[in-house]
Specification:
241 residues, alpha/beta, Rossmann fold, globular, binds 1,4-anhydro-D-ribitol, Nucleoside_phosphorylase_d, Nucleoside_phosphorylase_sf, uridine phosphorylase activity, Uridine phosphorylase
Length: 241
Amino acid sequence: MLLPILQVNTEDLPAIAIVCGDPKRAETIARHLDEKRELAFSREYRSFVGTYKGVRLAVVSHGVGSPGAAVCFEELIKGGVTTLIRVGTAGSYSADYPAGSLVVSTAAVRADGLTRQLVPEGFPAVADHEVSSALYAAAVAEGGIVKKGITVTLDAFFTGVVDIPHKQYKQAGALAVEMEIAALYIIATLRGARAGAIVALDGYADADLAQEYDPHTNVVAEAIEREIAAALNAVVKLASA
Ligand code: R1X
């Protein structure tokens, strides 16, 4: 069956997928694969398959924001993917975790609109424990600052006139903010798949710490390489468990 939006044939999809926002990053991740094949590049969704240390996986970009990303997650699961790992970027809430740190998201605050149209208020967006544990262990092995905990998923990247309670999220213990993880966790739970996410921090979301947003620094690029390596090694661990 041809997935209508990803434009990928379900027969080509393995059971595990690494997903990321940026189609360019999908290619960067896919460069680590053996027998790499590009399946499709449809809208913001660029799909590759290949093997890493003998394990077949897909690498697919999902674009920016929950509604578009949800289309990708839903179609991958429809196509037979049962484990999804998001490799992304996020803004930090804490000076203890500066740009270049990695965060494994164990759960996401649903500060998005999409998941409200999928599940009732209060329904939690949580990672699969095995996926998070594998990601965390693999990330620690890569070195650098690594932390696991709660992230926030928002829709608005640029602020309008409504205050977003970043201070409260931070005081309550959230580590970072991004735009797709809650959608991933809710959809995985709804459809019986397992999911986890790792993000490289690319700046501060906290107004007290905020500097000019520049995600294109060497320190961020190195963190992205570490999270890619961690995700690939987690895939191997999860495939053999
Ligand atoms: O998740 C967020 C979004 O996809 C993080 O980076 C993007 C915005 O630059």
